[in-house]
Each structure stands twice: as C-alpha cells, then as structure tokens.
Design a protein that fits this description.
single chain, Cytochrome Bc1 Complex, Chain D, domain 2, 53% helix
Length: 103
C-alpha cells in the first residue's frame, strides 16, 4: 500500500488548482487582464460583461464558473473558450477570478 501513495499523489497533482506550469499561469493571467478585460472592464468591475471581481463571484459555485468560461453564455456576448482552454486552465482562471490572485 505504501508503494501506491506516491503514484496516487502523482495522479492527483494535475487536478490541483496550481498545477499549471508558471509560464502558462502567466499567460492565463494576461488573458484574463486583456481578453476578459476587453468586455468586463480593465479592472474587471464590469463593462459590456458583468463585474467579475472576487466579491461579485463569491456566491457562484466554482464548477458553474468553469462551465461559463468553457461554454460561454448563450444569448450574451460571453463566448465559449473551450476551443482555446482546457478544463484545468478554465479551473485555474475560475480560482484566479474568485480569489483575485494566482492559485
């Protein structure tokens, strides 16, 4: 059983919020500030899209936020990012938006 522990830890590691390589995390932070900021305002306080600062997202479930990032919101200007982002990357962005800091 002790031999399985390191393997299980390795398998679980990619699911952790901070599991992205630092260079990819920096790219995603830039994406949030530039691409998301284009609609949600450069301070993310709202514009064409709603306020997406931590206080505004506090009541939202993380899974729901990941879904909005990946699949967009039909009938609004929020596009689906699934063609460009993995689920792990969308989860990183959701955590970044919910905390105001890189996970």
């Amino acid at each position: 059983m002790l031999r399985l522990a390191p393997l299980l830890a390795l398998l679980a590691a990619p699911a952790a919020a901070g599991a992205l390589p630092p260079d990819r995390a920096a790219e995603l932070e830039h994406l949030v500030r530039q691409d998301c900021g284009a609609c949600h305002g450069m301070t993310l306080a709202g514009g064409l899209g709603p306020d997406i600062r931590p206080a505004a997202l506090a009541a939202l479930d993380r899974t729901a936020l990941v879904s909005v990032i990946l699949d967009g919101r039909p009938g609004t200007a929020m596009p689906p990012w699934r063609p460009l982002l993995s689920e792990a990357e969308a989860a990183w962005i959701a955590e970044y938006l919910r905390t105001g800091d890189a996970p």
